[in-house]
Amino acid sequence: MVQERPPLLTAVVICILLTGTAAAYALLAGDDAPGQPPVPAGTPARGTSRTFSIDVSPASTTARPGETIRYTLTIHPEGGFAEPIEVTVSATALGGVYREDRDLGTITAPYPPFTNEIAVPGLPPLVSTATVDAVVTARGGGIVRTGQVRLVIKR
Fold this sequence. Notes:
The protein is mainly beta. It has a domain at 51-154: Immunoglobulin-like (Sandwich), CATH 2.60.40. It is 15% helix and 46% strand.
């Protein structure tokens, strides 16, 4: 003969079983679960990604033709990022009449500051001031970061 149990008792028993199963799963799936290999040093924590940011300085400067300007690009790796980073620059001036693209090379970890010196170009006749806007692009590990640079050339 089948014995009937009250519905409340059945619900309580099911809740206890589900709670015990969830607790056991949480213990076995936790970061400190026995049998799990240790996480290597430099591995990003869960929820963080391997990426990088860049700083270019000076971001804006004024110079005369013939002067030398030193720009410094600093890479800031995050989350254990260590991929090679290719650096390019694209500059425009005089309303797009002047355009230049340069490959500045590749920087590898540990990413020392990257410096680039440029000689400030001369100005065309009858032009007393020109603004050169440049975009520095850093590509590595499928990530692209850009920085803006402005050079004002005055006679």
